[in-house]
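Input/output pair, single chain:
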Amino acid sequence: MISTFYLPGRVCSTKAIREIAQKASTAYTIICLKPEIEWVYLGQERMIQVMEMSGATMVYADHFAKINDVVTQAPVIDYQIGALRDDFDFGAVLLWNTAKLKAIVAQMDTDYEFAGLYDLRLRAEKLEHIPEYLYYEVETDTRKSGEKLFDYVDPHNRQVQIEMEACVTAHLKRIGAYLKPGAYKALPSAEEYPVTASVIIPCKNRARTIADAVHSALNQQVRAPYSFNVIVVDDNSTDGTAEKIQAIQDDKLIYIAQDKTWHAIGGNWNVAIHDPRCGKYAIQLDSDDTYFDETTVQKFIDTFAGLEPEQDIHAAPRYGMVIGTYQLTNMAGEILPPGVIDHREWTDDNGRNNALRINGLGAPRGFYVPLLRTINYPTTKYGEDYAVGLRISRDYPIGRIYDVVYNCRRWEDNSDANCDIVAMNRNNWYKDRLRSFELVARMNNCKL
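Output:
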């Protein structure tokens, strides 16, 4: 009743998928991504039962993970239309309706070396998650979540990423969500602003790192006629962060103490950009990071406005958003692998389509404030920057800086340093939800 085939992971060729479809001779086909699977009693039967009840093309399930003979729960998340990232975790067991599998494979018209399985599941009509623990898998990648986070931008994976981008772009074209290059709306005109740029630093309980961040921002050098200030938004810190900030005496430093309501990172950004002291451009600096050197703010201004000083300081810029390049370091400033993260996958022609596949657009981020004030951040502490970047990319051009301008400092208090599986699932589900919102908006826009 079931044909079982082993694939060594998500990255595989179209040829391998075709061979599976050709050899599958039973009503159901299991594609297994790991070599060691042990079934819960009647686990396979339950997957078939759910497939028959739901009419799904493919079903997948929660499971147990074995790490050095220690068994832990490994729940996965529901699939949604915005679950376009190529590293979506289905677990190791994918049960397919063989007839539907063969029909999909017959439509696969591009031969991929790496994106065969990705192409297959993007074309599937209905992927059903069973929230029951139905099997055991041996987990071989035991790195912390913060160490896995940057796999997709590792230069060693560049060819894989190029194929995955081509695959998702073809998918967006099939479903009517593809954005053609160069079709942008006009940016809103600028008003008069007190300074050209504001460095925005939201923080909460960062007594250990906040002074480094603030001094890094205040040490920036910009040329005339440009100017800048630094806006620090403290979200009710209780560890001495406020005292660290207030001890820094500088006319360019603006301190905002939040009220007791819910703000999170997104809400803190909204308070900063709507403050009348905010500049024309708002440039990100996280409270545990630093700028690479004193030229970062000027490089953002130059990219927004052009290499020559603006004749009209209030003119609209070339971009709605600018994304820089960062390097990973520890707290001592030593480079951590994979080193420089420049997001070369962003291209003028296709970056905003590929943005729906990847889990982030890069850092640091700079925004044209008249535009950002019409969009605003979602009031959340994770994914808020990705949400804004997706929204801007739909209608407005995004510029890039490929020089290193930022030190992303990894330490034990990073929000993504070592998430447990519940937190990882929550974060991944939310970003998939953001993609779903954005995907529907793009599909609707393309119909106009």
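The chain is about 35% helix and 25% strand. The longest strand covers residues 127-138.
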